[in-house]
């Protein structure tokens, strides 16, 4: 895919936000390598991580040097959602995080692909990838939620824990010309139906407002993000200027 540089500051801001989302979640999913519950999930999670990494490379290249942006920025310079930086936890926690984010990403890229803006070429390809990501998370949500008492309890705890991070996904981002309210309505309807089919309860906790989480777009991140970033950037920072 040919990378088209962002033509203005607004589009660069949007590219950085979306690129950071994909980069950080890709790294989180990559942490499952060697630890997934079954061999098939080693492959599935790795494939999703690689899809996201590919998206991140295109988006960050619209802003500047992708390697410098990934490995040399400080924590406060990242603009990713707080949702994607949350630790993997148990497998149910990872699936809940993926369900919430992939449903959002699928709707967002679908709208961007239908337009003629600078993100349309990427979105046209990425929406096909995110359709698989969303389906994978949906199937596991149904399997865990409607499974044993233990799997259902773990899935419900994960959904409840991450719910407060979801409102940030629909806050306005400079350079993204999308209907945030419409996307949120569609997201909430789809996610609620999946949770219902999985015999899970839709949380009634806040998703927006003073008691909700979400300031990643402003460079404010949760404590686990700093540890993740140090690990992600360690090799590059240990050998500055190295080539392979």
How many extended strands? 0
Q: Sheet bearing the most strands, described?
A: none
Q: Kindly provide the radius of gyration, computed on alpha-carbon positions and rounded to a whole number of angstroms.
A: 17 Å
> How does the overall form come out from the CA principal axes?
globular
Q: In angstroms, what separates the terminal alpha carbons?
A: 24 Å
Helix count, per DSSP? 9
The oligomeric status of these chains comes to single chain
Tell me what portion of residues adopts beta-strand conformation.
under 5%
Low-confidence stretches: none
Tell me the structural class.
mainly alpha
What series of H and E elements makes up the topology? HHHHHHHHH
As a percent range, the share of helical residues equals 55-70%
Question: What's a concise summary of this model?
Answer:
This protein is mostly helical and 244 residues long.
Keywords:
62% helix, mainly alpha, 244 residues, single chain
Describe what you observe in this structure.
The protein is an all-alpha fold. It has helices at 9-30, 39-61, 66-71, 82-85, 91-113, 120-145, 149-162, 180-197, 223-238. The two termini are 24 Å apart.
Topology of this structure?
Blueprint: H1 9-30, H2 39-61, H3 66-71, H4 82-85, H5 91-113, H6 120-145, H7 149-162, H8 180-197, H9 223-238
Helix pairs in contact: 1-2, 2-6, 5-6, 5-7, 5-8
């Amino acid at each position: 895919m040919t990378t088209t540089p962002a033509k203005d500051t607004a589009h660069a801001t949007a590219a950085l936000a979306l690129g950071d989302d994909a980069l950080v979640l890709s790294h989180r999913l990559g942490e499952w390598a060697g630890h997934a519950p079954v061999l098939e999930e080693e492959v599935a999670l790795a494939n999703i991580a690689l899809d996201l990494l590919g998206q991140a490379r295109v988006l960050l290249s619209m802003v500047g040097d992708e390697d410098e942006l990934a490995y040399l920025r400080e924590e406060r310079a990242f603009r990713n959602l707080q949702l994607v930086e949350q630790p993997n936890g148990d497998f149910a926690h990872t699936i809940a995080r993926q369900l919430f984010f992939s449903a959002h990403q699928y709707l967002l890229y679908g709208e961007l692909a239908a337009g003629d803006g600078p993100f349309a070429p990427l979105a046209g390809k990425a929406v096909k990838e995110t359709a698989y990501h969303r389906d994978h998370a949906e199937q596991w949500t149904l399997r865990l939620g409607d499974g044993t008492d233990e799997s259902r309890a773990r899935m419900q705890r994960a959904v409840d824990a991450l719910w407060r991070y979801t409102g940030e996904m629909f806050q306005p981002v400079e350079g993204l010309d999308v209907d945030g309210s419409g996307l949120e309505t569609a997201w909430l309807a789809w996610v609620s139906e999946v949770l219902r089919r999985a015999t899970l309860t839709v949380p009634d906790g806040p998703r927006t407002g003073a008691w909700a989480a979400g300031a990643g777009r402003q460079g404010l991140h949760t404590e686990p993000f700093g540890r993740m970033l140090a690990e992600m950037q360690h090799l590059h920072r240990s050998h500055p200027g190295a080539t392979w």
